[in-house]
Design brief:
The chain is mainly beta. Helices cover 0% and strands 53% of the residues.
Length: 117
């Protein structure tokens, strides 16, 4: 199970930190990720982190502004979002897949992020 939280309403340039708490199974062989979906748009990849080793990957649109990290002791993944822009407004979902499977099999419920101009 994945439980996302931390969304909210902020102004342009402000920051938010999203959390995704995982439960139910060891995450050793998993890749955890954040996706987002804005109204009228397809869901898009934001960032991912490999649980073992911590390798990260980012969408070009968030590089330098967003940071994904994990707390292994708490089985929690974070997305620190800085310098937020109105185009970051979306529902953010955390997801997980087992390496090397390419499809994300597990999804959280989503948390709304709204950035006002």
């Amino acid at each position: 199970q994945l439980q996302a939280s931390g969304g909210g309403l902020v102004q342009t340039g402000e920051s938010l930190r999203l959390s995704c708490a995982a439960s139910g199974r060891p995450l050793t062989n998993y890749i955890m990720a954040w996706f987002r979906q804005a109204p009228g748009r397809e869901r898009e990849f934001v960032a991912s982190v490999r649980w073992s080793g911590g390798r990260t990957d980012y969408a070009e649109s968030v590089k330098g502004r967003f940071t994904i990290s994990r707390n292994r002791a708490e089985s929690t993944v974070y997305l620190q979002m800085n310098s937020l822009k109105p185009e970051d407004t979306a529902i953010y979902y955390c997801a997980a897949r087992m390496f090397p499977v390419s499809d994300y099999s597990y999804w959280g419920q989503g948390t709304q992020v709204t950035v006002s101009s």
